[in-house]
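Appendix B, Record 12. Input sequence as logged:
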Amino acid sequence: MDLAPYACDPANSRGRRFQEPPAPTRTAFQRDRDRIVHSTAFRRLVYKTQVFLNHEGDLFRTRLTHSIEVAQLARSVARPLGLNEDLVEAIALAHDLGHTPFGHAGQDALNECMREHGGFEHNFQSLRVVDELEERYPAFDGLNLSFESREGILKHCSRANAQRLEAREPGGVGRRFLEGTQPSLEAQLCNLADEVAYNAHDIDDGVRSGLITVEQVRTVPLFDGHCGEALAEHPRLQGRRLLYESIRRMLSAQVYDMIDATRAAIASKAPGSADETRRAGPLVSFSAAMREASTQLKGFLLHNLYRHPQVMDMTGQAKEVVRALFAAYLANPREMQAAFAAREDTPRAVADYIAGMTDRFAAREHERLTGERRLV
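Logged structural output:
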């Protein structure tokens, strides 16, 4: 792998929290990726949803398919920029490990329930999964990933949680949130690839669901331009083939724009190492025109899909399920699995237990504990 001088080199990794001998045939970042793929939390993502709940259709995106799409897009940008593709893949595959059931609705509800107990942040929860909650190794909790993978997984973090991390791990992954510096370029790339992926697949899933139409999406200039180009080349194109071709062209345009804009930003700062990029400000970006076009697309999806009455109804029901689960487990921790019930910090144990649930397990538990049947 030919790495640029500003890429993260596994030979210069800041290491793991618990020292381990190196793998004979894999770099540190390859090993991180492999541990993530084999984790329990990664397998659960197949039954955790994005916009549409798991029972609403077999072909809608899940957190697992979304994470794979983010990894593919991010690797497509990483290679021409000379960044570390293995690290990019590890971060992309792990970035949603801490997400609750029922997408952002579950996260918001759990944060409300935990307001008096330190709150709930899904990015921070993803770090907790790989640092503490996975139970696979005899010598330590978590997956013991490298600093660089953990840094990328912690996309956002409140100051309070950053201070807790800094107290436990001075100079570690919480430090940049206190100093206002950036993560590695690989981490910055995964952040933007995440945005590109969910904008594109939410168009696809939204049209598949019938909640929005191609004609509606064509009011968005970014989509409409590529749809028009597709029709100019293939005048008889229609239906799902037209939708797929338009999204494909839109994704390609965003990827190439990201490569060009980031390459220019790197050239202007000329960082000589991965650490220098962390002090150079955000470098992975769109051009100004593409950023504006992407913002317009996000606005369209917010008003026409995420706030659609049908989505809002399911969101409301999902929040009620999470609130009811939290209240039930807090009142009687023995309803949880024994390892969670035995922990001293009951509210955090309840939050960890609920956050690890799949959509269908959460719905079944809610019915078992309350006698009510929702989200079916």
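DSSP finds 19 helices and no strands in the chain.
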